[in-house]
Amino acid sequence: MALSPKREAIRETPLPGQMPNDREDHLNEPRIYQDIRSQANSLAGVLRYQCGEGLPAMLKAAALLRSSTRVLITGMGASMFASIPFEYALCARGIDATLVEAAELLHYRQACYGDALWIIVSRSGESIEIKRLLDLPSDGRTILGVTNEPESFLARKAHVALHVGSKADEMVAIQTYTGTLLTLHILLRLMDASPETVYTEILNILPRFAAQVQTELDCQHDWDDFLGQPFPMALLARGPAMASALEGALLFNEIAKFPAFASPIASFRHGPIEVADEKFRAVVFASAGRTRELNLALGEELARFGAEVRMIGQRTKEPSPLVWHETPDVPEELAPLFDILPLQVAATRLAELQGIWPGSFRYTPQVAVEEARFNAPPGGSKSPHDTTPGDLEESSATPTSARTKE
Length: 406
What we know:
Number of helices: 17
Distance between the termini: 37 Å
CATH topology of the largest domain: Rossmann fold
Order of helices and strands: HHHHEHHEHEHEHEHHHEHEHEHEEHH
Strand content: 5-15%
CATH architecture of the largest domain: 3-Layer(aba) Sandwich
Number of strands: 10
Helix content: 40-55%
Strand order of the largest sheet: 2-1-3-4-5
Radius of gyration: 21 Å
Structural class: alpha/beta
Shape: globular
């Protein structure tokens, strides 16, 4: 599909001013910090790609969505969580959209969605559950694939394949997570707005995103008191922010090997709140949106019950005992792009406090290729990243090339 002169101009538009995220003075830090720091530049590249070279596929996908009355969205882990705001936004437009984990869809629920447009989201496009779904008899269904690997199994099998165009991460999904969030948001906006409008909208928020990344990195030690207590941690949210709660819990699990969990706020109020006391920690999401006041009320109640509480969103004007990690005031469906940044840094900081090299995996490969077994030996594999707090303090003496997973 030929691009209009305006769209050709978008393709050639310079990216926003580059953040100093690839400077030599960062080369000796854990690679995950580089992935966090590079997100603003990565998102600028995603934006330019989706409104330039990738635009024909995006417009085709937007047309598919406009003509669909029923949509099934599926994925695993971070890819599935990044799809949550997209699911909510489709529902708000009157489209019957349902998000189902790929393994549950494969083994239990596939018979229900024969008449739906299938949207399969996978960073690698090679996860075992995704491949097995794609090997099912098609029965005439249309598949829209979203992946960061344009030559992957998913990209080859999908009727329409969207390439995220994000910079690659070392292991944990950082840049690819926010890149997937942005790609799905752009797809959503292209259903009813011109590429030029969408490009300008996103371009205008990227400087705030870049500033937020730097703020979180500069203030990472603000988490130390909260993270220094060996107590349970819950991440609580409603609506599109459930993406950040679930992805945040996953980050604590993967990066810091810490058993955090996520829950919808209303469900948490119906019983689980009984665990709240002075040995309980909670992160509550309260960005602008239709349930902000309800979320604020939960944070205040948890603090009243003695729990340690951190709030993510826009600080209230009234005096409050709650501790805030402030994020910009953006539309609710875009808030997860910003809400996840404090948790990327917090999980990385907790790993360091525990003497764990951030981003190293003990049991899982980056791409799950089996459903039943892990290849790691009992007790977990010994990663080249295995370390102690003392090692972390001396990490600047270790070349990056000696620590980066292949």
